[in-house]
Design brief:
About 60% of the residues lie in helices and about 0% in strands. With about 170 residues, the chain is mainly α. The chain folds into two domains: about 5-50 and about 130-160; about 55-130. The mean pLDDT is about 90.
């Protein structure tokens, strides 16, 4: 299974509220599920700890967001439909966008090296997320499963004996 698949499954289970697999009954099932979630969490925690985020890149992101916020259209123009803009509105919109683009270009130039390093780091991250890894999941037999919807079964297929290789993520 790839790191990105483990991440997707973990996030899907942890963040799903409607038809949550976390609410399904069954002692053996819940034991297997919790055990597997803990294995995934531990694996992902270690994996994510290897990701380096340069503090200067965070600084760049903050400044970029500030430029975008400070160089946005006036509130009264945000609610208008494009066909309602008059020539003055169009000029304001073009001026605001031109200023915003110029400020962002200047910021990118100022952080050119940091952005280059971050691009390399992002590519490493993406490659790492595509790597195949082995996690010894606690498997559960079909007879120990509660009644599952198709969606729930798809999410949990990684831990069901005989279905582990039939995940939609494969």
């Amino acid at each position: 299974m790839k790191n990105n698949e483990i991440s997707t499954i973990f996030q899907t289970i942890a963040n799903t509220q409607e038809n949550s697999v976390l609410d399904l009954p069954g002692e053996k099932f819940s034991y297997a599920l919790v055990k597997n979630l803990n294995k995934m969490k531990s694996h992902l925690k270690h994996l994510y700890s290897t990701f380096i985020v340069n503090p200067e890149y965070r600084e760049y992101e903050i400044k970029k967001n500030k430029i975008n916020e400070e160089n946005d259209l006036p509130e009264n123009m945000k609610t208008k439909k494009i066909e309602e803009y008059n020539d003055e509105d169009k000029k304001i919109m073009a001026d605001v966008e031109s200023k915003r683009v110029q400020l962002l270009k200047e910021l990118e130039e100022e952080y050119k090296e940091v952005l280059s390093l971050q691009k390399i780091e992002t590519e490493k991250r993406m490659k790492l997320m595509e790597e195949e890894v082995e996690i010894d999941f606690h498997m559960i037999d079909r007879e120990n499963l509660p009644e599952l919807s198709s969606r729930q079964r798809t999410i949990l297929s990684f831990m069901i004996v005989g279905e582990a290789n039939n995940s939609l993520l494969d």
